[in-house]
Amino acid sequence: MIAEVILNNNSKQLNRVFDYQIPECMVSKVKIGSRVLVPFANRREPEEGFVVNIKETSSYQVKDIKQVDEIEYISNKDIELAKWMARRYFCNISDCIKLMLPPGTTTKVIENRVKEKSASFVYLKREEEDIERAIESKLIKSDKQMRALHFLLENEGVLVTDLELFADVSRSVINTLEKNGYIEIIEKQIERNPFIHKTIEKDQDLVLTPEQKEVYQTISDSMEDCFFSEFLLFGITGSRKDRSVFTIN
Q1: Of 31, 7, 27, which Cα lies nearest the Cα of 17?
Q2: C-alpha of 187 from chain center
Q3: How far are the Cα atoms of 45, 57, 180, 245 from residue 249, in angstroms, in the given order?
Q4: What are the φ and ψ backbone dihedral angles of 178, each rounded to 5 degrees?
Q5: Which of 14, 106, 123, 134 would give a disulfide with 139, using CB separation of 3.0 to 4.6 Å?
C-alpha cells in the first residue's frame, strides 16, 4: 500500500504529495490523516508529514514510512477541509492541517508535545460470590482489603485515587489485591473538557431603548415591504448598536 504524504513544511515547492510505502507492520495503523515521519531527500533526520490519501501502487520508486503517530488528531473530513482552505486562501495544505491540531501538539519534536491525559481505574476481576467466599473463608483477612473490595462492589470502575480516599486504603493495599487477582487496574485516556465545571447561564431577553425601537421598526418595515437596503447605525461606543442588529437578525 502507498501513502500520499504532505510534508510539514512552509516551502511552496514542497506543497504537493510524495509517495511512501506503508510497511506491513503499519498497514493497520496508517490512515488518511495519520501523522508520520518519512525520509526525505538527503536529510539526516526524517521529516514529519500527514497522510492525505492511500492507494494501491505508485509509479515512482518509493521509500518506507519510518514511524506513525498512533494518536488520531485529524480525520479524512479534516484533510478535505484543509485542501479546500489551501485552494481558497492560496496557502500550503500543511499550514491548514496544523490549524486543526490540538494546542501543544504542533511541534515537530515529539518529546515536547502535550501528552493526552490519562488516569488509572480499578475494576473487579472476580465475581461477587467469589469475593464474598474468599472473605468468609478467611482467604482475605485484612480489614483494609475487605473495605476496598466492598467499596468496589458498590462503585466499580473508580479512579485509584478515589478508592484510596473513600475506602481509606493505601496504594500498597490496592497493589496486593491486584497481585492476588481480585482486581485489575486499567489506564484510560481522559477527555479534556475546560467547560466541565463552568455554569453557563441563559441570556435574558434584551430590552430595547426607545431609540433602538425606532431603528428596529424602521428596518423591520423596510424588510416587510421587500425593500432591502443598507442601514448605518450611529451611536457612541457602548450604546449597544450591536444588540440592535442582533435583535433584528
Answers
A1: 7
A2: 17
A3: 55, 53, 66, 6
A4: -70, -45
A5: 134
Q: What size, in residues, is the chain? A: 249
Percent of residues in the chain assigned helix, strand, coil, to nearest 5: 35, 20, 45
Task: Label residue 115 by pLDDT band (50, 70, 90).
Answer: low
SS (H, E, C) 20-86: EECCHHHCCCCCCCCEEEECCCCCCCCEEEEEEEEECCCCCCCEECCEEECCCCCCHHHHHHHHHHH
Helix (H) or strand (E) holding 147: helix 143-154
What is the rounded end-to-end Cα distance, in angstroms, of the chain? 52
pLDDT at 116: 62
Model confidence pLDDT, tens digit, residues 139-172? 999 999 999 999 999 988 899 999 999 999 999 9
Q: Alpha-carbon Rg of the chain, whole angstroms?
A: 30
Sign of dihedral through CA atoms 173, 174, 180, 182? positive
| Residue 208 clears pLDDT 90, i.e. is over it | no
At residue 239 the predicted structure's pLDDT band, cuts being 50, 70 and 90, is low
Closest CA to 53 of 24, 84, 25, 22: 22
C-alpha distance from residue 51 to each of 21, 35, 47, 70, 210 (Å): 12, 7, 13, 13, 58
Task: For residue 226, give the C-alpha cell.
Answer: 421587500
Q: What is the mean pLDDT of residues 59-88?
A: 91
| 159/226 Cα distance (integer angstroms) | 62
